[in-house]
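Design request, tokens follow.
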């Protein structure tokens, strides 16, 4: 069993102490969370207020969308692979750090004028202040800071990463890490990772990662899923990042293809086949801790604030709380009716998003979002949503509002 002293704690200072306000201005501490929910069948995204379930905005799209939020929470990206478009929404929630306190501005969500188009946009990933948008149908990656889409001055760094393939890219300082397509058949999963500088020149040798799929970041470290392990990317000083392959052979049959990164604890939660997850701590004496699940996994999430908490929904409709430090499932809750993992990968099934003190779980067949209090680990209430709520991201936080 691993003790807490063996974990790397990251320091994220957030000044939220009380502060005096000049003049007659009045400042109150408030918390506000907004859910962005993509429908399973209709091409639409709805913005829903967590506190009362009202609809703050509705945005029609061209096709089904996968949803991603920026780290700041100021923007939400609706990636429509079938339509070849990416619609960008301003969330309407802005947190501004003033050192001794944080200001929270609440506005209506809106569609930004900046939008992307290309063949099969797929993987979205943000790291180190820059977003990477990968287009499977072109073998192209656009790298840009969030400010470019907010200001309407979109001028990305565009990299040609080879033949069209189901790949990915990630910014790392002044460099970009991207997938390398299978040279014999680009329709198969990528086979390696490559580093390029800002001029598009390759740096170092490719690092093998057969069946590459999935990526996440935690505390300045990136991890990528492979059929035979993971590849970890970390800083090597002032130069290019170092890529290191770590085998998962000790874990038995299975592979990593979906990853979530911790915030104040440096770790990754990954899938391993359909009926297990793995806690990954790069650089530790024991890198992998496999946790077998009672049923096949539907979705999982990492709590960015309650740093020990991760949540896993299994196909029997049970929600599980997995403690990062103990490596054990501490609590379970019957939350939804069963959702079988048999059938098509895009059949309507629940998705998870952490929103402050709540875990929001879509229940598409019932047309509701279920809100679980992460302290009591009990369902507190539901929000009825028109259609079939499916994909979901949450934005928000706490701060002072000045009148």
């Amino acid at each position: 069993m691993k003790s807490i002293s063996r974990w790397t704690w990251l320091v994220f200072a957030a000044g939220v102490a009380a502060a005096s306000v000049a003049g007659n201005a009045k400042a109150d501490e408030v918390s506000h969370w907004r859910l962005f929910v993509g429908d399973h069948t209709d091409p639409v995204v709805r913005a829903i207020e967590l506190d009362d379930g009202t609809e703050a905005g509705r945005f029609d799209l061209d096709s089904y969308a996968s949803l991603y939020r920026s780290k700041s929470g100021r923007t939400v990206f609706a990636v429509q692979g079938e339509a070849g478009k990416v619609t960008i929404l301003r969330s309407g929630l802005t947190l501004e750090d003033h050192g001794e306190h944080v200001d929270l501005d609440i506005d209506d969500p809106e569609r930004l004028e900046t939008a992307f188009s290309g063949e099969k946009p797929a993987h979205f990933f943000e790291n180190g202040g820059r977003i990477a948008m990968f287009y499977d149908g072109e073998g192209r990656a656009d790298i840009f800071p969030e400010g470019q889409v907010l200001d309407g001055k979109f001028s990305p760094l565009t990299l040609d990463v080879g033949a069209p393939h189901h790949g990915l890219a990630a910014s790392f300082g002044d460099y970009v890490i991207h997938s390398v397509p299978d040279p014999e058949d680009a329709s198969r999963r990528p086979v390696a990772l490559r580093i390029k500088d800002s001029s598009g020149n390759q740096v170092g040798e490719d690092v093998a990662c057969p069946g590459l799929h999935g990526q996440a970041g935690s505390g300045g470290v990136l991890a990528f899923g492979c059929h035979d392990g993971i590849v970890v990317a970390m800083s090597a000083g002032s130069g290019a990042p170092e890529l290191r392959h770590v085998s998962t052979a000790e874990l038995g049959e299975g592979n990593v293809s979906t990853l979530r990164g911790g915030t104040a604890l440096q770790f990754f939660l990954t899938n391993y086949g359909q009926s297990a997850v793995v806690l990954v701590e790069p650089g530790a004496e024991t890198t992998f801790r496999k946790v077998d699940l009672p049923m096949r996994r539907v979705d999982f999430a990492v709590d960015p604030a309650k740093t020990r908490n991760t949540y896993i929904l299994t196909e029997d409709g049970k929600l599980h709380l997995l403690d990062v430090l103990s490596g054990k499932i501490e609590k379970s809750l019957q939350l939804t009716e069963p959702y079988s993992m048999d059938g098509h990968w895009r059949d309507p099934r629940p998705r998870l998003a952490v929103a402050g003190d709540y875990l929001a779980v879509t229940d598409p067949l019932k047309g509701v979002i279920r809100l679980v209090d992460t302290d009591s680990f009990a369902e507190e209430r539901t929000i009825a949503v028109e259609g079939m709520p499916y994909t979901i991201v949450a934005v928000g936080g706490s701060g002072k509002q000045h009148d």
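Comment from the thread starter after seeing the answer: thanks! Helices lie at 146-151.
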